[in-house]
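Changelog note: in this version the structure field was regenerated for every chain. One regenerated record is shown below for reference.
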Amino acid sequence: MTSVMLALLITVFVLYSLDYFLYETLIKRNFKAAAELEFPSVTVCNLSPINISSINQSDALNWYFLATHVFGRFDLSEQFNTSDPRFSVLHEKRNDSWLRHTAFNKSCVYYIEFGGVRMSTQSYIKYRATDAGMCFSFNGPSQTPPLVSKMTGSRRGLTMFVYIDQDNYVFPENMGAGLKVAIHDRNVEPNMEENSFLVSSGTVTYVPIIKREYTFLKKPYKAFGDKYCIDNNDPAFQNPLKYYNNYSLFACLRECRARYIFKVCTCRHINDFGEEEICTFAQEYNCVKDAKDQFDGDFSLQQACECPQMCKLVTFEKQLSFARLPSEKYQRYFESVKINDIHKNHIELRFFYETFVVESVEQVSKIELSSVLGNVGGYLGIFLGASILTLTEWIEFFALALYVLIKRMLRWTKCNVISSERADKN
């Protein structure tokens, strides 16, 4: 009986262990209210990455910017040849300071207000080199301590007035005029090409946001299909990136893409970090664009980078609403003071928390180790209880059997004595 129970116990332990080592997970979703929330970073880029007044305004450069635009590639590509002596300016060397020197000045953000208090542009707006060129960032990683929003609503968030200066635009990739905007975690590199939204000139734009937090289990649990996440908050974590102080998926891919471009084109794109020689305009036109498109469109190249997603992510859900800037009433006022380019060059932006309720999405283990041990312990208790009960029953059985046997033996002995006495008398 004991051996049977031991075999059942081992079977139960093996079955529960197999279920545990499958590392299956569940998703738990909940909502929590906060009294205040850390404000996200807001990064804005002019749709024209270059201020034409800061460079040599040659016909060759204007022709180059037009030819590299999607319309230009369709209409002018066969007429554009970088080896033509007329385009010798496209072969001139550039250095890292060129990007900062040719970008629009951060004074274009001429008014900011946070929490109802006006703030200094020079102190709170920082330059940030992104994949879209040199941009401006509010509440970025260098902001210490990070700014905190204490109230919800459009009057208690971030208000920003921006002058885009269309007269100094080049022919950008996008034919529009305005800004490219990203709202992101302070410690994450913004993806301005794929995770941003556009704001047109001559508009008032309201952007209410809701914070979401995602927490995934690290290895051996799989967080993204068949992939593992990386816990960059672990004290033992070592940042593998060379040019970014904080690890993020996009920062890792940017470094990897920069290495791929250098491998193919033997130069570094002006928007990337590194010590290699920066590509000329001619190299960008003849090689870099194709290499960049190839990397972005080839999933196998990105997989080879070995850039895992982070186990903890913060995102911001946003909704946009627009109004024309200025209204007719304001338009008449501005005209009276000789300001005639409000609709052409000015943008008002308002970013604010819609609510302080944070949505939390957490990946949890379907079977915890404590559950396995608890279940096995429960069965062990049952089996041990059954074994003790069985042992007690056997003891009781043998005791009763012994009692009956002794009683019968005594009776038999007594009967023999009486028989002997009667025989002697006779």
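Spot check on this record: The first helix runs from residue 2 to 20. The CA atoms of residues 330 and 342 lie 10 Å apart.
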